[in-house]
User: Fold this.
Amino acid sequence: MTTATTVNVPDLIDEQKVGSFQIRILILCALAALLDGFAAQMMGYLAPPVAREMHLTPAQLTPIFAWGLVGLMLGALTFGPVADRFGRKPVIVLCTLLYGLITLATAKADSGASLAIFRFLAGLGFGGVMPNAIALTAEYSPHRRRGTMVTVMFCGFPVGAMIAGFATVPILNAYSWRGVFVLAGAMPLLLVPVLAFLLPESVRHLVIHGGDNARVGRLLALLNPQLAFDPATHFVVLEERAPGIPVVHLFRQGRAIATVLLWTAFFLSLLDIYFMTSWLPTVFHNAGITLSLAVIATALLQGGGVVASLSLGYFVDRFGAFRALSITFLLGAVCLALLGYTHSVAATMICTFFAGAGIIGGQTGANALAAAFYPTYIRSTGVGWALGVGRVGSIVGPILGGVMLSMHLPLTTIFLAGAVPSLVGSAAIFAMGRTQVSINAKSALGMATS
Assistant:
């Protein structure tokens, strides 16, 4: 069929079924999220052998964790606005390339200081990938499936973290911790040409920035083979837009309170995630659990995140976006607190699984919420700054864990302290749902009201 002379691109995308083209985008972006999850978890497993080889204390290990996360934070804050100006695809491809090259070089680190520098530079490179992967997935998804598409895409993060757990131990035994960095650097370098050839640019971004009609028409035709466009077709995106500094617009049009609450939830959620992924293997091992069981328990943390991410859409549809995410974070807080009181391996595994379901699953839902909350012209900025602020929490988390371990605090105190951020994050998401601008955003997310 031939479409009308003027085509509203978001409306056209919303009318389509999810097809192979959107699934391709989801898979490619999920692979990028997988690399992020692998990188996040592997340092937790590498901390003991690195400490032994370089004679580092827990306090000396903390900067290695922290500087990598500082790089991720700065990358997210910087490359989100860059992508809103120049496009999602080039930023994703370039940042993935930089991350792979620098991670390969990390295998040559010979001191705690050099390792921290390499981790910072690698984080700076990769920090721009996730906000743009989230934005790109959201922008090609029909609104009724947008939340589900983003949450499924972000399942790559806990899957990558699980792979890190199962891949790290045999590589450590065969090639030492340096072999893990070789693998972690090779994976993104293999992904770069795939992204370059198969990942499309955001069609909404092209229209807003005056992309040529022929390219826009070709991309839209990939959504549905029955679509055809006359060369004179005029493509439009009838969304709010404004000139000036993108970050400023995050606080305009009634978005200020909701943005602050969203940032609060991201900060506290990522604080908890990186607190657990960085130190959980060490904490379990110090508590008398064998290293192999500690690895399995930490993998179950990520497994809980995968299960929660895949099932969250049902609960969102049933209970509403903000209410469901609040309950999810509350579940994580309760189960994390209970970890301090478990006295058997089975109970530890169960609580770890549901702690991951609550905290990692909640973060997955928060990503989808951020992608839907902001319009196209500031979407990468909005998601990037939410993740950037969250990365500050991811820096605080490992530091907090290192301080508590250095103080030799009991496990009950450590896990109770870890439960507090998720509890407050639950309240922040619930409060965000009470702001009118967030409630109005539900239609963009394709979710029920809370």
